[in-house]
């Protein structure tokens, strides 16, 4: 990178200044992480791209993998869903090279690990992507490229530095469909019947009432706007302490993430907690030891149905099957109507049919020792070991969900099971 050197000039009274900026090339001084350590860009011949942690934190995405989109040349990020807690994007380096597994090898602090998307971005010092021959040091597993993640460490001889950050954000769908109103729906339904030599489904009186929109028995519901939030809140908080003294350096951090569900009347919410401790100690002039400890706790809550859980993709497609002249409640009540398949979409997004909780505990630990051989300058021996236990606890609680069926003769509402089956009231 070519820039200009910084100049400080003292200005005196009635002084005429002529400032000439001096070119400064800094490319050769930049250091990137490669498979066998670090290397200056000036001497780098392989295909390596890097993004710094400070650039990652500028992106509001909760998932770290999503925040890499557009920041690394040759890296493609494809997210099939934006559902909170389930947005696990695919990463392609130089596109898809095979019809089989196309995932790159992910190395976090020198150890092959998963959970790239759930890292705390405030803990990341840099992310490097090795392509082609640059990744060959990792063998056959690097066929789809390698992603190297380096987390932050303390600075030797520095006073404790405390950082706190809080980011509040709002997410929304990238595109919102334009739904037909009840009047248009009724008109098109009549046109279809005419083309099939059938009687019109709606009379002229029905059409006028749908057009007027003032009769509660002739509703006009935009189901997409009714069930999908315009804006979904999310936030990330982070507290870190770093420094170094007497040959020891440390970086300690705690992060918390919260995402609300994307549906109105819903109960979905995502909570994530990250802990990290990176400690290095220079025991002697030639001996250095260190450990990297990281923990993550995920506590997610989802509404449940007899599916037992319907994904956002399934629910979103179901919205388009709801007619605009249907309504969620019987007029003047809070009693749910039986709609498509004698179900009601509100039972899909709340806990009426039960719930599912997912609790994931992840712990990652690495210890290392580095010995600089005193009789051979520049030569060292290093050994490391890692232990990464994790546990997942899933609780699914199911119960019957109900709607209210209306007697066509008396108009009386009767509670009955939702859905189609032998034990349902319909």
Question: Can you summarize this structure?
Answer:
The chain is mostly beta strands. The protein has helices spanning 53-57, 64-67, 182-195, 204-212, 223-227, 312-319, 346-349; strands spanning 2-4, 23-25, 31-34, 37-40, 47-52, 75-78, 90-93, 105-108, 111-112, 124-131, 146-151, 161-171, 232-245, 248-260, 269-282, 287-303, 354-372, 380-387, 390-398, 402-406, 413-417. The chain has seven helices and 21 strands.
Task: Describe the model.
The protein has helices spanning 53-57, 64-67, 182-195, 204-212, 223-227, 312-319, 346-349; strands at residues 2-4, 23-25, 31-34, 37-40, 47-52, 75-78, 90-93, 105-108, 111-112, 124-131, 146-151, 161-171, 232-245, 248-260, 269-282, 287-303, 354-372, 380-387, 390-398, 402-406, 413-417. It is mostly beta strands and 426 residues long. A hairpin with a 6-residue loop joins strand 20 and strand 21.
Query: How many DSSP H or I helices?
Result: 7
Order of helices and strands: EEEEEHHEEEEEEEHHHEEEEHHEEEEE
Number of strands: 21
* β-sheet strand percentage: 35-45%
Which descriptor suits the 3D outline? elongated
Helix/strand class: mainly beta
Q: Can you give the helix content as a percent range?
A: 10-25%
Q: Radius of gyration over alpha carbons?
A: 30 Å
- Largest sheet composition: 8 strands, antiparallel
> On the 0-100 scale, what is the average pLDDT?
86
Q: Which stretches of 5+ consecutive residues score pLDDT under 50?
A: none
State the separation between the terminal residues, measured CA to CA.
72 Å
């Amino acid at each position: 990178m070519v820039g200009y050197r910084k100049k400080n000039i003292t200005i005196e009274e009635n002084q005429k200044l002529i400032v000439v900026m001096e070119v400064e090339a800094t490319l050769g001084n930049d250091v990137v992480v490669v498979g066998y350590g670090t290397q200056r860009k000036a001497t780098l011949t392989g295909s390596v791209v890097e993004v710094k942690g400070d650039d990652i934190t500028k992106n509001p995405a909760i998932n770290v993998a999503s925040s890499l989109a557009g920041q690394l040349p040759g890296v493609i990020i494809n997210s099939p869903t934006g559902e909170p807690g389930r947005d696990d994007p695919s990463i392609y380096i130089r596109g898809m090279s095979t019809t089989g597994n196309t995932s790159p090898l992910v190395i976090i602090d020198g150890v092959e690990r998963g959970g790239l998307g759930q890292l705390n971005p405030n803990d990341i010092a840099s992310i490097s992507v090795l392509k082609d021959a640059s990744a060959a040091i990792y063998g056959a597993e690097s066929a789809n490229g390698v992603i190297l993640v380096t987390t932050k460490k303390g600075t030797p001889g520095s006073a404790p530095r405390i950082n706190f950050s809080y980011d509040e954000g709002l997410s929304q769908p990238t595109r919102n469909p334009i739904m037909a109103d009840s009047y248009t729906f009724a008109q098109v339904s009549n046109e279809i019947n005419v083309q099939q030599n059938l009687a019109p489904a709606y009379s002229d009186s029905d059409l006028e009432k749908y057009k007027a929109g003032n009769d509660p028995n002739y509703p006009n519901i935009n189901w997409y706007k009714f069930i999908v939030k315009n804006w979904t809140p999310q936030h990330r908080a982070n507290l870190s302490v770093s420094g170094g003294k007497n040959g020891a350096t440390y970086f300690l951090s705690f992060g918390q993430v919260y995402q609300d569900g994307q549906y109105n009347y819903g109960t979905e919410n995502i909570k994530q907690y990250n802990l990290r401790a990176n400690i290095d100690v220079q025991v002697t002039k030639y001996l250095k030891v260190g450990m990297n400890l990281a923990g993550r706790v995920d506590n997610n809550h989802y509404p449940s149905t007899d599916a037992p859980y319907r994904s956002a993709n399934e629910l979103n497609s179901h919205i388009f099957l709801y007619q605009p002249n249907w309504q969620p409640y019987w007029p003047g009540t809070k009693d749910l109507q039986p709609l498509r398949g004698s179900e009601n979409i509100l039972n899909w997004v709340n806990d009426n049919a039960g719930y599912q909780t997912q609790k994931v505990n992840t712990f990652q630990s690495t210890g290392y020792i580095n010995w600089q051989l005193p009789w051979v300058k520049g030569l060292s021996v290093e050994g490391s070991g890692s232990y990464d236990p994790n546990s997942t606890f899933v609780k699914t609680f199911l119960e019957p969900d109900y709607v209210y069926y209306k007697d066509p003769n008396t108009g009386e509402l009767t509670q009955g099971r939702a859905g189609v089956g032998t034990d349902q009231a319909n």
